[in-house]
Amino acid sequence: MDSAPPLSFDLPRGVPRDVDVPDEPLTAALDRAAATWPDRVALDFLGATTTYRALADRVARAAQVLLDLGVRPGDRVALALPNCPAHVVAFQAALRVGAVVVEHNPTYTADELAHQLADSGAVVALVWQKAVPAVLAGRDRTDVRTVVAVDLAADLPWRKRLALRLPVAKARRTRAAMQGPVPADIPSWHRLVAGARPLDPATPQPQAHDVALLQYTGGTTGTPKAAVLSHRNLVANAIQGHAWTGVAPGTEVVYGVLPFFHAFGLTLCLTYAVRVGATLVVFPSFDPALVVAAQRRRPGTFLPAVPPMLDRLVTAAESAGADLTSFTHAISGAMALPAETARRWEAATGGLVVEGYGMTETSPVALGNPLTPERRPGTLGLPFPSTEVRVVDQEDPTRDVDPATGGELLIRGPQVFQGYWQRPDETAAQLLPGGWLRTGDVVQVVDGSVVLVDRMKEMIVTGGFKVYPSQVEDHLRGMPGIADVAVVGVPGGAMGESVVAAVVLADDASGVDLAAVRAWCEQRLARYALPRRLVVLTELPRSQVGKVLRRVVREQVLAGGAA
């Protein structure tokens, strides 16, 4: 693999070709931030502020809580939490005691959570109150010995906590959205942390090579598997991101609208923000009205987002007469950035929005457009510092091809993951000799910039989330009235792609419509994976060996060739 040199690119002015990755754990960044900017606001959650000094103290107490719960170095600690200060504290505390964080979408079903908890072998789960019933429902299939409930409302400013107690409809609706019933024997995270002593500073720190994070991704098969990321992987990507943005430490205000349980949000909000001493404005979910309100209170400078968020924020700001000109830069990822979306954002802010590219397996950012007027909208951009790329034959990844013609993108760098958790065969298929990662994406190099041509994998990206057709198909095959099914993605406007279920009905089918299909899927699938359209076919196109040809199904759907 190392016989041909990696491709050469001209990086933006001021961006180093290589970065030094120190031999330190991820938690060292918080220690430095607390020492350098003790009184700087680290977190702003709907107006409740936490300084870096207070954050470090809370993390030290939370770390002791985890030790008291029996967590030891190498143990997996599951987080099933929305964005909130408790999420930031739990993430840092678990890492500080040498545990491995396992991030989960708190809106997953009981089956989805049980699968991931069992696969990771997590022993302690810190869970949003509303997700506690789902975790408890599948707990007997896991190694989880302790479930701790996290009350989202406990992180609110005290005035808003008091308002939740009012006997009015608005307060009841807010309580229902933020809180949920928890069995009496499930301890409260906030109470445990408040009553704990700080961790002994002499407690051994994790090492750079230690595993820090298990981040679940579907990969090529659609079967969720955990990417293993070390402290060094995550430290490297935060340093690379800082080199790319070039911001002065202690000046950034990052808006945390992306979910922290997603690789994109985790790195830009939980690791990069601390690395540069930023104030992180935390939002429990993406709500344009909340963002506009925060913009009046604490104007942002940097927004990591997916394209639909940018569009909705500009629309909300226009309606409310809000000023977005404090945002100097935004990074868009997870899906292609439409030119009109970029134009609207830059017109509203006067700043730049550029596209980045990466995977969970690259911590996740590997390429990006320059944060300069020389950016190339519609392209993936250039490799990050200390990141090498190749373009190889799709069938034979050991053979380099003309990058202008196109081929599969390979990536190598300090942010590339360690492999898949307990899946050596899949690791070997993805990580090639020499540390090269197969991305499964077909690219070309055009005028010195990497351009995405197509995805080798058949996953669907909707609203920044990945949907794996086989998972949706497997569930729908068990639905009465459906004889066969193929799931594909079609252009879906601002959402990127829409999930379409193409079905062949059984002879005795009745009551199979889109509403019924979505209701059936809600039993096991996340909301973003639910089909948005139902197409009925007389038969599914198949290859000579009987494999459904999703590409042909998609063409039929786009051509309107359905009964």
TrEMBL record:
It comes from the Bacteria. Coiled coil: none annotated. The keyword RNA-binding does not apply. Residues 472-547 form the AMP-binding enzyme C-terminal domain. InterPro entries: AMP-bd_C, AMP-bd_C_sf, AMP-binding_CS, AMP-dep_synth/lig_dom, ANL_N_sf. Residues 30-421 form the AMP-dependent synthetase/ligase domain. Keywords: Ligase. GO terms for biological process: fatty acid metabolic process. GO terms for molecular function: medium-chain fatty acid-CoA ligase activity. Belongs to the ATP-dependent AMP-binding enzyme family. This is Long-chain-fatty-acid--CoA ligase.
